[in-house]
Amino acid sequence: MKILILHGPNLNLLGTREPEVYGSTTLDDINEKMTALGKELGVEVTCLQSNHEGALIDALHDARMWAGGVVFNPGGYTHTSVALRDAISAIAIPVIEVHLSNVYAREEFRHVSMISAVCKGKVSGFGWRSYELGLRGLVSFVADGIS
To answer: Is 17's pLDDT higher than 80?
Structure first.
């Protein structure tokens, strides 16, 4: 099984961007942890980050051809992008939405996700471990034949 770990805008700045909110773990650290966890779980992990909405949509479209599912942190696009919601809905593979921070403990506009309704699940508030929990959940869903 192959899994896409997809990171949205500004996540390339992890480790230096608002460490009081997002922690000191870098994006490279997260990618390394997810690749290692993938090996442990018997799946191949591919990691991709973009600050551009269209590139994220292209990555989702492409993933339908090769991935069993996607762990996706859409960053700020979570709250604004109908286009990402439509892309997730269209690809017919399970997507887990993840966030480093607890979005419900932050500004009110962060409480609304445009994509949650078309995702298989959502994990937030556990720092980099949100990705770990999301990947474990996704692999379990796929192994159980849930899509």
So the answer is: no
